[in-house]
Amino acid sequence: MSTSQHDDERPEPRYGRYAPNTGQEQSSEGQGGFASPYGSPEDKPREKSAPQSPYGRNPYGDNPYSAPENSPYGTPTWGHPEQQRSSGKSEAWQDNPAQQQLPAGPVAPPKRPGTLLTALFLMLGAAILSLAWGIYSLMTLPVMDPSDVMGSTQAEIFESQMTAQAANDPQLQDLSTQELMEFMMLTLGIMALVWSLVLLAVYITMAFVGTMTGQVGRILATIWLSLSLGMLLLGFNGASYGIIAAVIIASLVALVMLWMPATNAYVQERRAYKERRRAALYQR
Fold first, then answer.
1. Residues near 135 by Cβ (< 8 Å), separated by ≥ 6?
2. Basic and acidic residues compositional bias: what residue ranges (predicted)?
3. Cβ(260)–Cβ(115) under 8 Å?
């Protein structure tokens, strides 16, 4: 087979140097000397634009954190991160109506009624009267006859007991019966003065606790004032019974003042004020 016959049977090349020259390829060869098998960039199909949303344009605009001015829901609470960092605690408290609800009660502390002031002064007066009773007892008992204080029968029993005790105590053996009784009456006067000092301290404490510390203090003061009736056992003559009677009357009147309607209303308002103030402190 001859060479010309093989050339006739060779297929026509589509690419390379043996490809047929067209106008487009000539322009490509003129630019770079190479014809791209994919054609020129102008022949590429353009990309299709994204289809528009069937719901229309975003009402919130390009910024996802913004809201329209006429939105019925107002500004979203989640907001922009920068707005979250810049928002203060007071604004969050104002936007939350649940935190603004405080217990019902007076805004200012209630004024102390006159009944409590009266009870305070009465208990202080009872304290002073108790001290006066102790001083009177110390000055009176040493010079009184035991029979006038205890009665004749009790005085004889007391005298026999003191004589038997003096016989066993070397320090009391040199004292006569009269001196021994005077010494014991002086001891009773000193004990009365010490007891009056205890009464003075307790009355002053209960005067302030019962009128300034609320319900618990009022109950404690009531118990103490009720025990004032026991002071009747400490009387030994008319004057001492008169002082004790004054102490008991002052105590009972103070007890009534502690439970008057005005006092009860004050205690309730004071409790409500404390609850409201405590709730306000928790919400800060």
1. 193, 196
2. 1-15
3. yes
Max CA-CA distance within the chain?
Answer: 178
Domain locations in the chain as residue ranges: 114-282
The residue written with tokens 């025990």 in the block is 227
On the question of pLDDT at 193 being above 60, the answer is yes
Confidence of residue 27 (pLDDT cuts 50, 70, 90): very low
Calpha distance 189→46 (Å, rounded): 122
- One-letter amino acid for residue 114 of the chain: G
**Whole-angstrom distance, CA of residue 182 vs CA of residue 146:** 9
Per-residue model confidence as pLDDT tens digits over 135-173: 999 999 999 888 888 877 887 887 788 778 777 777 777
Q: CB of 156 within 8 A of CB of 113?
A: no
DSSP 231: G
Q: Could you give the residue ranges of the DSSP H alpha helices within 10-145?
A: 23-31, 81-86, 89-95, 114-140
**Burial grade of 104 (CB within 10 A; 0-12, 13-18, 19 or more):** exposed
